[in-house]
Amino acid sequence: MNQEIGCASDRHFGHTTIVECSEFPFASSKGYHLGLIKEWNEKARSREIYIV
């Protein structure tokens, strides 16, 4: 079986002031969270293992 292991850290899920504290291109924390989910779903594959 060909499997990859990925690692992601400090994604700030639930951090409601992340937009104000950073230079992310989102208008709100909800937009930030939806953007993270969209990006994750576009890149993650079902046979990979992720440690978050």
Describe the structure.
By secondary structure, this protein is of the alpha+beta class. It is 29% helix and 12% strand. It contains 1 helix and 2 strands; from the N terminus they run βαβ. It has a two-stranded parallel ribbon with strand order 1-2. It starts with a strand and ends with a strand.
Quick rundown:
By secondary structure, this protein is of the alpha+beta class. It has one helix at residues 29-43; strands at 5-7, 49-51.
Unreliable stretches (pLDDT < 50, length at least 5) are none
Distance between the termini: 22 Å
Which whole number gives the mean pLDDT?
78
Number of helices: 1
- Gyration radius over CA: 13 Å
Descriptive tags:
single chain; 52 residues; alpha+beta; two-stranded parallel ribbon; 1 helix
